């Protein structure tokens, strides 16, 4: 998407946000209509189940509503784009919260690999976006997503396969075993090695302080 396309896509969001903050319910409805495709697309990139993605979409808008008076466009940034980035960050955090909960519920205990994976999910989660966080969020998302894709791509195929099915798609080891025709014990070993490799590859993001 070109900068001109982005400008057109976000045009008028700041004015709608101002009206929404003043209590205009129609402005909120229009914000929801304008931003839902963007937020939904972001969530669906990580959540394959449509119903779950829709629940997360509504949860993100509810969280944004509760924190709406904390919104402030950073100095020098496009006010319209700042609105989109703010909602995008909240949706991203809601998605990571869901994945973290899912992992904790379904993950097989694999020595310290489970702790590493939860910590990785925590490291990807931002605090409620401040002006500074909104200013860098888009670039940060691109960098993190690229690094995760690269780290996954470097895993051996068998490890990448089980990590993707287990953590990203949220399947149990029993389900994966049935799907691939591989014993659960073998899958656990592959997952353990894959998670440790990812923890090492993505360690730089874990050590970075969260934006204030």
Automatic annotation (TrEMBL):
<dbReference type="Pfam" id="PF08281">
    <property type="entry name" value="Sigma70_r4_2"/>
</dbReference>
<dbReference type="InterPro" id="IPR007627">
    <property type="entry name" value="RNA_pol_sigma70_r2"/>
</dbReference>
<dbReference type="InterPro" id="IPR039425">
    <property type="entry name" value="RNA_pol_sigma-70-like"/>
</dbReference>
<dbReference type="InterPro" id="IPR013324">
    <property type="entry name" value="RNA_pol_sigma_r3/r4-like"/>
</dbReference>
<keyword id="KW-0238">DNA-binding</keyword>
<dbReference type="GO" id="GO:0003677">
    <property type="term" value="F:DNA binding"/>
</dbReference>
<protein>
    <submittedName>
        <fullName>RNA polymerase sigma factor CarQ</fullName>
    </submittedName>
</protein>
<dbReference type="InterPro" id="IPR013325">
    <property type="entry name" value="RNA_pol_sigma_r2"/>
</dbReference>
<keyword id="KW-0804">Transcription</keyword>
<dbReference type="GO" id="GO:0006352">
    <property type="term" value="P:DNA-templated transcription initiation"/>
</dbReference>
<comment type="similarity">
    <text>Belongs to the sigma-70 factor family. ECF subfamily.</text>
</comment>
<dbReference type="Pfam" id="PF04542">
    <property type="entry name" value="Sigma70_r2"/>
</dbReference>
<feature type="domain" description="RNA polymerase sigma-70 region 2">
    <location>
        <begin position="31"/>
        <end position="104"/>
    </location>
</feature>
<dbReference type="InterPro" id="IPR013249">
    <property type="entry name" value="RNA_pol_sigma70_r4_t2"/>
</dbReference>
<feature type="domain" description="RNA polymerase sigma factor 70 region 4 type 2">
    <location>
        <begin position="147"/>
        <end position="198"/>
    </location>
</feature>
<dbReference type="InterPro" id="IPR036388">
    <property type="entry name" value="WH-like_DNA-bd_sf"/>
</dbReference>
<keyword id="KW-0805">Transcription regulation</keyword>
<dbReference type="InterPro" id="IPR014284">
    <property type="entry name" value="RNA_pol_sigma-70_dom"/>
</dbReference>
<dbReference type="GO" id="GO:0016987">
    <property type="term" value="F:sigma factor activity"/>
</dbReference>
<keyword id="KW-0731">Sigma factor</keyword>
